[in-house]
Structure formats: C-alpha cells, structure tokens
Amino acid sequence: MRVWNVYLSGEIHTDWREQIIDQTRALDLPVEFSAPVTDHDASDDCGAVILGDENNKFWYDNKGAKLNAIRTRTLIEEADIVVVRFGDKYKQWNAAFDAGYASALGKSLVVMHDPSITHPLKEVDAAALAVTETPDQVVKILNYVINGKLDR
Description:
Blueprint: E1 4-10, H1 16-26, E2 31-34, H2 40-51, H3 57-78, E3 81-86, H4 93-104, E4 108-113, H5 122-127, E5 130-132, H6 135-147
Parallel strand pairs: 1-2, 1-3, 3-4, 4-5
Helix pairs in contact: 1-6, 2-3
C-alpha cells in the first residue's frame, strides 16, 4: 500500500494541522505528515543560538531562515502533496514562499484560507490544484485522492 507524504505549511497560531491529522487517522488513510518547526521562538532564534548571536537583526534572521530552509526545502521536495494554510491575522510571507516553491517543483498544492483574503492570494490560488477553507475539506480531498471514492 502506498503511503502518501503530506507537508503542512503555513499559519502556526491555530490547531488546523491537528484537525487534519486527527481526521485523517480516524479514516485510517495511509498518510505521513511533516511540517516546518512550529515553535515560533525556536524558529526565530535557531540560527543565533546554534551559530552565534548577531547584533544586526538582518543577519540574526538570515541565519535562522537558512537553517529553517534546510528542513522546509527537504520536506517539500519529499512531499506528494503540499497543503499551505494562510491565516487572516498575520501576513505569512513564508507560507507564500512555500507555496511558490512547491508549485515550482510541480508538487500537488492545496491552499487553505478564509474567503476574506482571496484577493491578496489570487496568484497563489491560481497555482493550487485546490483552494479550500477548512481542514475538513482538505481531509475530504485526501480521502478522495487516496481512495478514489467520493463520499457525498
């Protein structure tokens, strides 16, 4: 049996990842999930903590971004499907970058966001194979793609 590799990118302030994982497990779908580091402080500080502090915020952030990119690039490259969630509270430039990177690699891209931010995400949505609003819709897509059955 094929095991699908799904990368869950984007917004880190809600439990959308857990909802998708829990619902997918409840359906017993053959899926392995991966994600970026979702500990905001660890993600921000990893470069300086591991490689040495920086006085200049640009270089501080640059070190962290590069270390995070090792994980992000690897996991997106290994993914069969990339799900990118955009929240409406923060501008998630990293999520947009992940969506573009996945699209450039020819990955199957599923985007999730509230309809209120459709306009600023129109280019991202145009690159996606599916644009969803809820974790439930993502799980229904996974169930359909994996099992080839449409639950009405």
